Amino acid sequence: MSRQRLQQKIPVGISQCAMGDPVRFNGGHKHSKVCTELLAQCFDYVPLCPEVAIGMGVPRKPIHLLVGRAGAPVDAVQVVGVDDLTVDVTQPLRDYADSVVPELEQVRGYIFMQNSPSCGLYGVRRYLDNGHGIDSEGVGVFARRLQQQFPHLPMEEVGRLNNSELRENFLTRVFTYDAWFRCVEGQGGQPPESLRGEDEPSSRDNLPTLTARIIEFYTAYKYLLLAHHQEKTRALGRLIADAKSMSDDELAFAVRGRIMDILSRPASRKDRTNALMHSAGHLSEFLDKREKAELKELIEEYRLGHKPLSAVLTLLRHFLPRSPHRFIHSQVLLAAEPAELGLCDFH
Ligand code: SF4
After folding, report:
1. Pair 242, 274 in one domain
2. Average pLDDT of the chain?
3. What is the pLDDT of residue 339?
């Protein structure tokens, strides 16, 4: 989550109509400036339109999700023509999703267009065969298949990214997922950047084992995770400590899933305050009485909503060089966050 990281954009999948391409059923698009102007600063997009890709053409007859009853399971749907129930593209959309899996192995997030029977991620309207809308519990068939293929991949809807809190959360998840594959499960398996000294070589000869890399990653992300969910973070720590019966690969899959689950809950001010207090505790022995009081007061002002997070992080980073301890220097919580990078303030 460093500024340096942004020099190398992260590959992210996206519904093609959000890029401004005229691929919708009516020949239009749904251009998202947040995606193409703001988030494009750090994302390298892989745009896909599943309906065009399966040969439906532009323009095309509209389709929607068909279910037998209200509240039917999410996979008990068909994607059929609004005016012609015999047009059923359910399997072609699923097959197309399966066919792009190799291409999407490299992406570290996916942004889907809302309200689409192919791409919608949340609350897609579902219909009975008489054409009556019955509930809004659907997931687009293409999006659903990718959820199954990539269970931990950060996903979000275009419209929800207009909300700065949800946008920050998505960015945090994408940065973390990307870091995981660079540092833990990637081909290079490099230790987290924050844990590597400037002069420390990154030769493959002295790479730590997979389990050691998992532990290093968890250690570096510990306070960030605590800011999102304290109980689940402690449970993850116990899982790693007691993981002797698991293979390295099983442990990596389990830890990756738990980390992405913890981060899926936006950080609360209360939990962030707790994580900031922990961070301050590591520095207190290097501060004089006045500095300790200043830091404590600033964290309290943040807790009350009177000061932004960036103010606390700036002061913590100012004091950070005084500590010789690697643990606190490694904390990703103290690195530049999306809001500070200007990615959550869009006008
Ligand atoms: S929502 Fe998906 S299927 Fe529909 S036009 Fe956009 S990219 Fe294509």
Report:
1. yes
2. 91
3. 66
Substitution candidate for ligand 1 out of 14, 19, 23 with most atoms within 8 A of CB:
23
119 lines ligand 1 (CB under 6 A): yes
* Count of domains forming the chain: 2
Tokens of 333: 């919580």
pLDDT of residue 150: 98
**187 and 136 housed in the same domain:** no
Determine the distance separating the centroid of ligand 1 and the alpha carbon of 48, expressed in angstroms.
8
132/64 Cα distance (integer angstroms): 11
Q: What are phi and psi of 14, to 5 degrees?
A: -155, 145
pLDDT confidence of residue 89: 98
How far apart are the CA of 30 and the centre of ligand 1, in A?
A: 9
| Cα radius of gyration (the chain) | 23
Domain that holds residue 238: 163-198+205-347
The pTM for the full model equals 0.91
Same domain, 136 and 226: no
Specify whether 39 is located in the same domain as 157: yes
* 194 and 138 co-located in one domain: no
